[in-house]
Amino acid sequence: MKQTNAIVIVGGGLAGLTAAIHLTKARLDVVLIEKNEYPKHKVCGEYISNEVIPYFNWLGIDILKYKPTIIDKLQFSTANGSLINCQLPLGGFGISRYLLDAILYKKAIANGCKIIQDTVESCTFLENEFTITTSKNTVFKSEIVLGAFGKRANIDVNLNRDFIQKKSNWLAVKAHYSGDFHDDLVGLHNFNGGYCGVSKVENNSINICYLADYKTFKKYKNIQDYQDKNIMLNPHLKKIFLNSTLLFEKPLTISQISFEKKKIVDNHILMIGDTAGLIHPLCGNGMAMAIHSAKIASELIIYFYKSNTTSRSILEKEYEKSWNTNFKKRLKMGRFLATILQKQKLANVLLRILIVFPFLLPKIIKSTHGKPILIQK
Predict the structure, then answer these.
(1) pLDDT tens digits, residue range 27-68?
(2) Is residue 228 domain-resident?
(3) What DSSP line would sit under 62-110, residue for residue?
(4) Tens digit of pLDDT for each residue in 179-214?
(5) Mean model confidence pLDDT for the chain
(6) Nearest to 300 by CA among 15, 22, 67
């Protein structure tokens, strides 16, 4: 068995915390570095496919006891309001990142993970060892580093990652509202320049989160103006916004969201969650993918330390292979669907096809979702 100092996880979102729980369950030493305090609201669709439930149970997380909303129906509309409904093949649940991250954080701490609030400034690899330096001038040495620092971070610049050199035209906006919306429904509604997801989370709150093309957005004065004069041209979104009351002081925003392909292993760091690849929110499966990627990486790392025959090179190749097997086709389908939905004429054609052949919509949904995440024996 290989000897190890602590595994370092950079970033404490869904993927980072899940990996921390999994690795500490295997009695490995883990240090997780996260710049934010817990709990904290984040820009996120906050719908998770039921595929994660078996894995959560294995980790010792009974997610249903926290009373998330149970969701099994999808409502889809084009920008002009044409509508179609269907059952979600696997179903899912709605839970806020504020609550879910807090649950995972407490579980990671209980498992013995050391969580440090700090910002990683640099991560270098030399002679089979990483040196991680933080903004507080703390230095960590580690044989294994997991990158879980999200959609876009300063460390991406430090690592000179390819996608960070390209400007992205997407921004996302999210807020919670009170109002009347079905508990068992997730709505996906298009508008000129983007699409909006609507579903309930715990405590009867409605999560409204949309992705917008910056070229469209910049024509308006502010978020409220954009919503009033553009998003609400979709009659379904108009009804939702007019009958909902904002619960946040103001909506949360994040810009420069990139859906470009990313390296799964970069500078010998195993990337997980959004750091490895971001699926378009319209697919409603980013949270489950982040959790699943943490499981894949954790299992391979555990085997790396328990086996005397597994090298770093094999670890990296196996992780990249497994990641691509599970997610490459889903990401490709997400990009394809986003391209169609950005073009109103194509979106209307797609809807007419789905109305004539309604069995196709569940098939499309399945192509962006996985099967229940089971533990290897």
Answers:
(1) 999 999 999 999 999 999 999 999 999 999 999 999 999 999
(2) no
(3) -GGGG-PEEEEEEEEE-TT--EEEEEEEEEEEE--HHHHHHHHHHHHHH
(4) 999 999 999 898 988 889 999 999 999 999 999 988
(5) 89
(6) 22
How far from chain centre, in Å, is Cα 28?
25
Give the separation between CA 79 and CA 85, rounded to whole angstroms: 15
Q: Which of 60, 47, 58, 157 is nearest to 93 (CA)?
A: 47
Backbone angles phi, psi at 84, to 5 degrees: -145, 145
The pLDDT > 70 percentage for the chain reads 95
Per residue in 144-157, pLDDT (tens digit) is 999 999 887 788 88
Residue with tokens 């025959």: 309
Q: State which residues form the domain around 315.
A: 7-58+92-166+258-338
Are the C-beta atoms of residues 111 and 22 closer than 8 Å to each other? no
Going by the DSSP 8-state scheme, the letter that residue 51 receives in this structure is G
CA 60 to chain centre: 21
Q: How many domains does the chain have?
A: 1
Nearest 5°: the CA angle 175, 183, 241 is: 40
| In-domain check, residue 253 | no
Query: Alpha-carbon distance 50 to 217, whole Å?
Result: 34
CATH code, domain carrying 45: 3.50.50.60
Residue 307 has pLDDT above 90, yes or no: no
Is residue 159 over pLDDT 70?
A: yes
Banded model confidence at residue 298, pLDDT cuts 50, 70, 90 = very high
Token digits of residue 102: 């807090």
Single-letter residue type at 156? D
Is the residue at 343 inside a domain?
no
Determine the Cα–Cα distance for residues 84 and 73; give it in Å rounded to an integer. 11
Please state the pTM of the whole predicted model. Answer: 0.92
27: left (phi over 0), alpha (psi -120 to 50) or beta: left
- Residue 278 in any domain: the answer is yes
What tokens does 294 get?
Answer: 């943490």
